[in-house]
Amino acid sequence: MTSETLALVIFTAILMQLVILLLVGLYRRRLQYRGLNEPTAEADGMSVPPHAGALPATEPIISAPAWTEFREFFVQRREMEDENGDICSFYLAPVDGMPLPAYKPGQFLTFKLQIDDPDAKATKTLVRCYSLSDRPRPDHYRVSIKRVRPPADQPQLAPGISSNFFHDHVPEGDRLLIKPPSGRFHLMEDAPLPIVLIGGGIGITPMLSMLNTLLESSAQRVVWLFYGVRNRKDQIMKRHLQVLAKAHANFHLHVCYSNPTKEDKEGIDYQHSGRIGISLLRSTLKLMRYQFYVCGPKPMMEEMVQGLKGWGVDSNDIYFESFGVTAPFQHHRPDQTSANTAAMNVTFNRSDKTLTWDSAADSLLEFAETNGVEVTSCCRAGSCGSCQTPIASGEVEYHQQPTVDVEDGYCLLCISRPKSDLVLEV
Ligand SMILES: Cc1cc2nc3c(=O)[nH]c(=O)nc-3n(C[C@H](O)[C@H](O)[C@H](O)COP(=O)(O)OP(=O)(O)OC[C@H]3O[C@@H](n4cnc5c(N)ncnc54)[C@H](O)[C@@H]3O)c2cc1C
Ligand code: FES
Asked: pTM here?
């Protein structure tokens, strides 16, 4: 054998060894990732964490309230949170001065507002939800509200009623009626997994509550925050987030600007240009099991949730919430040609009312409200779970897919109508 042939044999043998090692490595990593998604002995000891998409029947949809119905709060302090002056935090203390119940980070408050309607020359009642944006504290709650302007492509439309009311007509000292914290989208504190928080725009608020809670706890769970906004002008609590990132080695901040301004500096003001996407997560996160929490505009949320599932993340590790849209254009008007026009009775058991269904009604929620039956509601778009109601008998049909799981035997009144005579426990 010539020396050239020997060198070639040795080179080929080394190359083959390298290829085999590489393949074994890749196979192991794949097994490791799959294994992380299997229930471990540790995880078996805990019950599988319930999430916005899968609650065990025993867990109530709304956390145990310390008060029922509406309690009076006053605005202790207001604080602008972004350069644009579009996001304002409201610090809310109870008028009775009694301690506040804790809540699960990620939950929201429901407000009842009395707003003057100049067109109708009357006052109208509006109910809206706003996520708690800080960790639980015994003396006050905090929400951070974005002023909703008319859509950019339809400037002739009215601006958001409730958000503009908060910004323009709720000064410090003003009183507000508030329901106890509720909601099924919240931090699962008992599962010791690293956490990935993904917030788009104002969808950052529940993430702030989770982040502040996690970083103040002694658990030292690793937290990644991916926060998407257009640029620094839209960014909320910029300094607070930067200070946290410097102070906590277990917190990794990744701010994405989709449309940075000339003053925005990559690596200082933000980490990535462009929107948050699954490819960014894949290139940034180490391959291991995480809990993912997603909140943002509906398209981003749908893309992220699908993308995570496509990446192989177990759906039990994905928690999500959409803020929904309450605008009238979203409302579904029944198609009279296809709608079931046969006379149907709807009984609201607890309100002791039996009424003939009005086929022009948008939803069972609207029908209930029109007839003086009080129902808790918030997003009115099938995404918060507030209006979930037990069905005693009969069937409903949905005119839009819920983005929250509905327990067996329950329905979401805001996006459903009766399919037969119906008896509801409300
Ligand atoms: C669980 C949950 C948590 C939330 N948390 C937060 C939070 O932390 N912070 C926050 O800022 N928001 C939050 N929201 C959103 C909030 O509840 C409100 O939906 C938001 O403030 C808009 O309400 P609005 O009354 O100001 O707007 P609306 O009056 O409901 O109007 C909404 C939009 O519709 C447009 N519109 C109005 N009329 C028409 C028409 N005829 N045709 C077409 N378009 C029209 C308006 O221009 C506006 O863009 C949350 C929502 C939910 C469900
Ligand atoms: S009001 Fe939010 S799901 Fe019905």
From this structure: 0.77
